[in-house]
Amino acid sequence: MIGNWVGNWVMWTSLDSWIVLAGALAGASCALVGAFLVLKKVSMMGDAISHAVLPGIAVAFIVTGSRAGGAMFIGAAVVGVATAVLVEVVRHYGRLEHGASMGVVFTVLFAIGLILIERAARHVDIHPEHVLFGAVELVPLHLVTIIGITLPRGVAILLIVLFVNVAIVTAFFKELRLATFDPGLATTLGINARVMHYLVMTLTALTTVAAFEVVGSILVIAMLIVPGATAHLLTRRLLPFLLVSVAVSLLAAVLGHLAAIGIPPLFGFEDTSTSGAMASVLGLLFLVAFLAAPEQGVVARAGNLVSLRISILTQDVLGLLARAAERGDNPDGSLSIGEFRSLRRSPFAGRRIALAVALGLLRLRAMVSAGAGRYRLTPKGRDAALEVLRSHRLWERFFHDEGKLELGALHPAADLLEHYTTRDLEDELEERVVGERTDPEGKRIPDRS
User: Fold this and answer.
1) Is the CB of residue 34 less than 8 Å from the CB of residue 224?
2) Are 67 and 124 within 8 A, CB to CB?
3) Cα 360 → chain centroid
4) Domain C-terminal end among 377, 392, 415
5) Which of 56, 213, 325, 333 lies at 20 to 30 Å from 162 by C-alpha?
6) How many domains would you assign to the chain?
7) Residue 136: its H or E element
8) pLDDT tens string 347-405
9) What residues make up the domain containing 348?
10) Do 201 and 227 fall into the same domain?
11) Are residues 66 and 87 in the same domain?
């Protein structure tokens, strides 16, 4: 039980369990369809639909005079699907980009919805802020009985929506994957990418309508977009993408409610909005992924940048020493800092060499005079130097044969690209070398062995 986990930190009741379950179901349902919105680069379609459904909600209230029943859900769902269709119609026939067409449709429908809700509020117990911000804390108060089981109405609706979303995504997983990543290929293979697009939009509309009663039409946007955006930083494969999105939403539901009821009392305040806390936790989870993602995170990118910078600084030293040894300028193939500086014209020669020594690529061969040592490649440095030389000369050969560059332009281009060449790219360059394995000046291209 959750109560055993939180211990004496907060007072946990069955009402809290229903609140968390409702938030988790809303989050999981939104995350599942929101992942496709993120991948299709139409994330704000959830925003558009969540606002545009207001006319349908208002009309249902005006007609029925009550917040109960399925009229509200049906009215909002119809308008939600119509929104997705209208956005595509405006985009296609108005020749507008996708964001502009969404802005035109949802702002007009949202304005109409607000006017109708204000009119309905005179006769029905409803206020715009209830629709905008939701009230997940009140979910346990509205109960229904289904096949002898009594549970909150919001939980029952969201269970059905989540089941529908999971069933459709599972049944059309291959089609959705192709239509999302490569609509052209999907069409070639006989999959109607447009139908898949409208299927996702329909699921988005239904999910938004079902979730807005729990988290509100504004906060539902966070549940549609943030889990998918977080997953986008962590994986590029669709199935893990969906699983990570759902896991993030579930974690946000639990931690969000705990934060809402547990953190404010620590500072002498009453508890706060659970919906707002859930959205805030989603933002924090995204921030953690943004900073610490293994490949896309800020820390990883900064580390890669530092590593690349170090590699560039040391590879210049290694390349010069390899060429000096090849030319036989010195019997032992060593260079002094002064010789390196004159060849490279670098004001940081000492720092580059010191860095290479620290990495075990160079060693001090002899001291000619005070502060004027000669440095020679270590076995590790020799292998790395030949790899740099190999990459450099393969690029020169490629630019000479394929690009028809003059000899004088080959070295600067190869000098830049040698630092960014992977093993696979190097192998592709080598496959293009025909005949004698030399660069355009007749110098041997080292073998990897």
Assistant:
1) yes
2) yes
3) 38
4) 377
5) 56
6) 3
7) none
8) 667 778 888 888 888 887 655 544 457 788 888 888 888 888 888 888 888 888 888 77
9) 301-377
10) yes
11) yes
115 & 248 share domain: yes
Same domain, 185 and 139: yes
- Within 293-406, residue ranges assigned H as helices are 298-327, 337-344, 349-358, 379-401
Class of residue 158 by CB neighbours under 10 A (exposed 0-12, middle 13-18, buried 19+): buried
Q: Which residues contact 86 (CB under 8 A, 6 or more apart)?
A: 105
Residue 18 or residue 145, greater confidence: 18
Strands 143-146 and 149-152: antiparallel
Which of 99-108, 126-135, 273-282, 313-322 is the least confident region?
126-135
| CA dist list (Å): 443 to 315, 328, 392 | 19, 14, 11
**Looking at the domain assignment, is residue 446 inside a domain?**
no
Cα(106)–Cα(155) distance, integer angstroms? 28
Residues 63 and 203 in one domain: yes
- Has residue 186 got a pLDDT over 80? yes
DSSP classification of residue 364: E
pLDDT tens, position by position, 50-70: 777 778 877 877 777 666 556
Tens of pLDDT along 299-345?
A: 999 988 888 888 888 887 888 788 877 776 665 667 777 777 776 66
In a shared domain, residues 68 and 167: yes
| Pair 142, 152: CB distance under 8 Å | yes
- What SS3 state is found at 44? coil
Instruction: Looking at the structure, tell me whether residues 156 and 169 fall in a common domain.
Output: yes
How many angstroms separate the Cα of 36 from the Cα of each of 24, 245, 334, 346, 396?
Answer: 19, 10, 58, 51, 44
Judgement on whether residues 136 and 186 belong to the same structural domain of the protein: yes
Cβ proximity of 283 and 274 under 8 Å = no
Residue 297 corresponds to which tokens in the numbers above?
A: 């995170």
Helix (H) or strand (E) holding 221: helix 193-234
Query: Which one has a higher pLDDT value, 12 or 277?
Result: 277
- Domain for residue 445, yes or no? no
Question: What's the DSSP call for residue 43?
Answer: T
Within a domain: 26: yes
- Domain assignment present for 66: yes
Residues 6 or more apart in contact with residue 279 via CB below 8 angstroms: 215, 219, 222, 223, 226, 252, 256
pLDDT at 130: 53
